[in-house]
Amino acid sequence: MKNIAILCSGGDVSGMNAALKRFVEYSIRKGLRPYFVDNGFEGLIDNSIYEACYDDVAGIISRGGTKIRTSRSKRFMEKAYRKQAMDNLKSHNIGYLIVLGGDGSFKGMQALSDESEGVSFAGIPATIDNDIAGTEYCLGVDTALNVIKSAIDSIRDTASSFSRAFVIEAMGRECGYLALVSALTSGAEMCLIPEIPYDLDDYKLCFQRQRIGGRKYFIAVVSEALNNSEQIAQWFEKEIGIESRITVLGHIQRGGNPTVYDRLMAFHFVTQAIDGLLDGNKSSVICYDNGGFNHKKIEDVAYKKYEISPELLKLGSEFG
Ligand code: F6P
User: Which of 41, 56, 130, 236 is the most buried (most CB within 10 A)?
Assistant: First the structure.
């Protein structure tokens, strides 16, 4: 019997627990012995590795976050700690490792893979930012979008009652995907993201005209990546003459009951990862594009820049 392990790395997403459930159940079905690594690469270094069973994953499918915790490990950037991590994997006879995370996590996985033999690796894209090159979808994005949707729907109630402008900041360290899709699907009046150049004077003309036409409130969705929520709120007060408030959605976007789509995608990603490892893939990332799953090299994923699709950008360019 071969042993297989899974760990979560970087920001948690809703759907990781569904992935853990599928991991345990599908591994056993395939004749593998499943192991959990607690606390990401930190746990790999510290040998927080234990065999997992059905009981460990009972009742977790509906919970956000990750039962086995996650971390951003600085130590893992050092070769000596990676060697310790590898020795730990070998001490448990683990021949396969699945990593759920973003491009930083995959770079760590590649370093481990380059420096060692006897262990095969599979990465599963998991970040609400949806900013990993080579895949159109990262686990957790749909749940995050639905959390944002509910928040904006609620904010609209108070914005319209009070005749205010609301500047709503959506997460995305470097990428405006969440802000763009949320602005489009919640009917926002303004959307500011790093990928689309904007001119506040254009917005000014348009909003002034709307005010004359009777508009009482505005919803602006801005990306965390621009770091300008305060500036935009002041702009509404000064240039448009409307009272404004800022809502930074923050970490609520990372949690909550995973959507059906994320649960299903978790199952698909893990199934693909395990099948790929059993087929002999040594080191790959499972990507979802053009309606199907592809196993791509880490260098084609972690070292390339993610681009929002031209169709979405075109829709986004109609703001302002
Ligand atoms: O996981 C991605 C992300 O949520 C980004 O959107 C955000 O910039 C960052 O993580 C926040 O990181 P932390 O949880 O360390 O505050």
Answer: 41
**Those residues with Cβ within 8 angstroms of residue 225's Cβ, 6 or more apart along the chain or in another chain:** 172, 173, 174, 175, 176, 193, 194
Options 12, 129, 142, 262, the catalytic residue: 129
Neighbouring residues of 318: CB distance < 8 A, sequence distance ≥ 6: none
Helix or strand (DSSP H, E) at 313: helix 310-316
Q: What is the pTM of this model?
A: 0.98
Give the whole-angstrom CA distance, residue 312 versus residue 8: 29
Residue 158 token pair: 């108070």
**To test ligand 1's pocket by mutation, which of 73, 141, 171, 251 has the most ligand atoms within 8 angstroms of CB?**
171
Whether 131 lines ligand 1, by a CB cut-off of 6 Å, is: no
What's the whole-number mean pLDDT along residues 121-140?
A: 98
Q: For ligand 1, say whether the CB of 130 is within 6 Å of any of its atoms.
A: no
Domains along the chain? 2-140+258-306 (3.40.50.450), 141-254 (3.40.50.460)
| Ligand 1 contact via 128 beta carbon (within 6 Å) | yes
pLDDT digits (tens, 9 = 90+) for 80-98: 999 999 999 999 999 999 9
| DSSP secondary structure code for residue 285 in this structure | E
> Ligand 1 within 6 A of 193 CB?
no
